[in-house]
Amino acid sequence: MTRIAIVTPWFGRELHGGAEQQAWQLANQLAGDGHTVDVLATCSQSFNHDWGRNYFSPGLERLGKIGIRRFKVSPRDRRAFERVNAILLSLDVTKLHRSVSPLGDDDARTFNENNINSAALNAYLATEGARYDRFVFLPYLYGTTLQGLPLVADRAYVQPCLHDESYAYLSCVEDVMHAARGVLFNSEGELELGLRLFGPGIHGKSTVVGEGVDLHVDPTQFATRVGAFVPQHEKYVLYLGRQDPAKNVGTLVQAFSDFKRRNPTSRMKLVLAGERPVSYGDSTKAIVDLGPVNEREKAALLAHARALAQPSLNESYSRVIYEAWAHGRPVIVHRNCLPTQTAVSRSGGGFLADSIASWEATLNDLDFAPDADLARLGLNGRAYARDVASWPNVIARYERVFASPSVAERNGHPPQADAVDPRAWDRLPDLALASALHDGKFNLVYAGSIVDLGHINELLLTFLHFLTIDREARLAIVGTAPIDDAVYTKLYEEVRKLDMVDRVLVARDIEIGQKLAIFRAADLFITLDEADVLGSPLREAMWFDVPILAYASASARRHIADAGILVSSKDDLLSIAALAHMLVTDRDLRASVIASQRRRRELPAPNEAASPWPS
């Protein structure tokens, strides 16, 4: 069997954080399946205690089948770290952009050097790392991963437990994702977020392994009451977890309050169960705050709830929704949290809501929904959970990953469908250009040969129509070969005549870092070229998850087929511009096109000229 090391900052049965519970259960499950498992952790007590204080004694202890090696933490400047951490916490994540660090170099160094680190652990990895066949580092944002993984990168998998948060945009995090042998995701939605943040360079080494949950339900172990609350006699929606503003509990509470104000005769209650820094309970007793509950109480609350509500925007998995499905109950999750939204959409096991008004509407639907309809949704979720979250299936996925060759070991060649070697995409882009392009404007991109201006002029006129819909947009025209001076002069003159000099970027001599920056920032790849050799740029757009709108040339039909939008006529450029705007802004349409492109890009490329991009 495989000798595995799980590297994590804190470890113990009593720890309640999501990553800490995952590390504990993963270590025990792998050891129970016959693998030799060591956990490499610091001597720090927990996330909530002083990261610079050694609570445990360093050294090796055995706990059942698991070996736990603890290492002293390194000294740190707590005030310096908290200053930088406060900056990160204050940032609006909707204004952050991939490949553009939210911190300057000095503050980024302060964050990294004063994180929870262990020089002793790093020394052990450097000198004794060869003792292990595979490493799993989790979660992503602590020094044990950021500093430790590069020391054993050839055998290391990072399990990021990723959220869409400011930490995920740091350059040191992107470096670790690309350095690792593989990236292990808890959910399909978390993988989607990882691809958005770190680009296609991680695609070939990413796997959704899932996260195990005990799906066995024993009704004889249900509590009959939780304090004065008797679940089987009540009609309620359940929130289960830490009652923290960071978990977006306020949105749920406000929506329920609005629902009760408009439906004062409704018997339905909102029940909150879990640790809380503040209480959201109210004097009307319509919102019931039960505080922390034990396992028997939790099981009873789940079994009798009309639905579980999970309003958090920051989840990589959300164990509680799978626990609800194990009990056959539907769930409500936030539409804008990719991991939970994807699970509900794929399973058909519940409801999606985003604004307070939509949460209120969903609560209203729950109040009047027939029990049979809710049971059907819960059964959908249970079937999905059995596949995704049963421990035997999860451990089997880990074992397949550990046994498979790395991307670099697969004969040293990229998959046949790649337009360029995806390892080139692991390089840092042109950061200055990336920052300039990530300014909130929509970026339309054309890449291809620019020998004459026939289709380019059509493209410029289409973009002129696009600007009547969104005057802040940008068009990047990228030559796949150096543009002749005379052609470039004519192109610039056309742009000037149309008064679009500040809206059109023309890249004459492209470098790999500049290409990466442009494709990472692109919202749409658009081409009206009728030429018959367009393959490489089109397939590159597919690999960067950039939706494609193209004229239906023979080449475009061969490469795109149904994985994009093809227009058969260029007589109505205004309609093409409107279609382009729809593809940029319509979330469902974009998702559908990108899903088709991902399926298409795995197929062998049609036999056309090799990519002219530098590698």
Describe this structure in words.
With 615 residues, this protein is of the alpha/beta class. It folds into three domains: 3-208, Rossmann fold (3-Layer(aba) Sandwich), CATH 3.40.50.2000; 219-388, Glycogen Phosphorylase B (Rossmann fold, 3-Layer(aba) Sandwich), CATH 3.40.50; 422-601, Rossmann fold, CATH 3.40.50.2000. 40% of the residues lie in helices and 15% in strands. It has 22 helices and 20 strands. An eight-stranded mixed sheet has the order 3-4-2-1-5-6-7-8, sandwiched between helices. Helix 7 links the parallel strand 7 and strand 8. The model is unreliable at 413-420 and 608-615 (pLDDT under 50).
Structural class from helices and strands? Answer: alpha/beta
Large-scale geometry = globular
Supply the CATH class of the largest domain: Alpha Beta
What's the gyration radius in Å?
26 Å
Rounded mean pLDDT is 88
Short key terms for the protein model shown above:
alpha/beta, 22 helices, 20 strands, disordered C terminus, Rossmann fold, 6-stranded parallel beta sheet
Compile the SSE list and pairings.
Layout: E1 3-7, H1 18-32, E2 36-42, E3 59-63, E4 66-71, H2 78-90, H3 105-113, H4 119-128, E5 134-137, H5 143-146, E6 156-158, H6 171-179, E7 182-185, H7 188-198, E8 206-208, E9 236-240, H8 249-262, E10 269-273, E11 287-291, H9 295-304, E12 307-310, H10 319-326, E13 331-334, H11 338-347, E14 350-353, H12 356-368, H13 371-388, H14 391-403, H15 431-437, E15 443-448, H16 454-469, E16 474-479, H17 485-497, E17 504-507, H18 512-521, E18 524-527, H19 535-543, E19 548-551, H20 554-560, E20 565-567, H21 573-585, H22 587-601
Parallel strand pairs: 1-2, 1-5, 2-4, 5-6, 6-7, 7-8, 9-10, 9-12, 10-11, 12-13, 13-14, 15-16, 15-18, 16-17, 18-19, 19-20
Antiparallel strand pairs: 3-4
